[in-house]
Amino acid sequence: MSTPREQPWRDPTGTETQGRLVVLTRNPIAEAIGVIASTAGRDVVVVDEDEEGRGLAAVQSVGLREGDAVVLCDHDAPDAPAVLRHALASPASYVAMMASRRRSEGLLAELAEEGASGLDKLRVPAGLDTGGKTAGEIALSVVAEVVATAYGRSGRPMREL
C-alpha cells in the first residue's frame, strides 16, 4: 500500500490558518478582491459604509486579529481615516489603502505627524506593480500582495529567486 503524496498547497499538520481579508467599502474592486481572495482560501468580510459613516463601528465589530488583512478600497469613505487608524493600531498583519501615489504621500505624512502606530504594516498604494487597470486586475495585485506578505515573501517573479 502506498502512502499518499503530500500536496504542495496543503498544510499536512492542519494547523495553518489564514487571516481574514476585511475590505471597506463595497465597490467593483472590493467585489473582485472578495472573489479572488475567496478562491485563494481566505475568508472575506466586505464592510459597507452607510451615509452616516458607520464603517468604523462595523470594522471594530469584526474584531481584527493577527493574520488579518484590511484593505480600504474607498479613500473617500467618510470613516476611511478613522478605519485606517483603527486597523493600524490593531493586531492586523496587513493594512492597505487604494490611493494615488500623490494621495499616499500626503496620507503617510499626516499619519506620521499624528504619531500613528503601526505605520510599518501600511501599504499605500495597495497592491503589487502589475500595471493592471481593470477592477479585477487591480484586485489581483492586492490579493497577491496580501498573500506574499502573509508568507513573508517579496512578490518578485519566481525566476528572479
TrEMBL record:
Q: Name one Pfam family in it.
A: XdhC_C
Sequence ranges assigned to domain XdhC Rossmann in this UniProt record: 21-146
User: Which InterPro entries would you find in this protein's record?
Assistant: MoCofactor_Util/Proc (IPR052698), XdhC_Rossmann_dom (IPR027051)
The lineage's top-level taxon is Bacteria
Q: What is the protein name for this chain? A: XdhC Rossmann domain-containing protein
Which organism is this entry from? Answer: Nocardioides bigeumensis
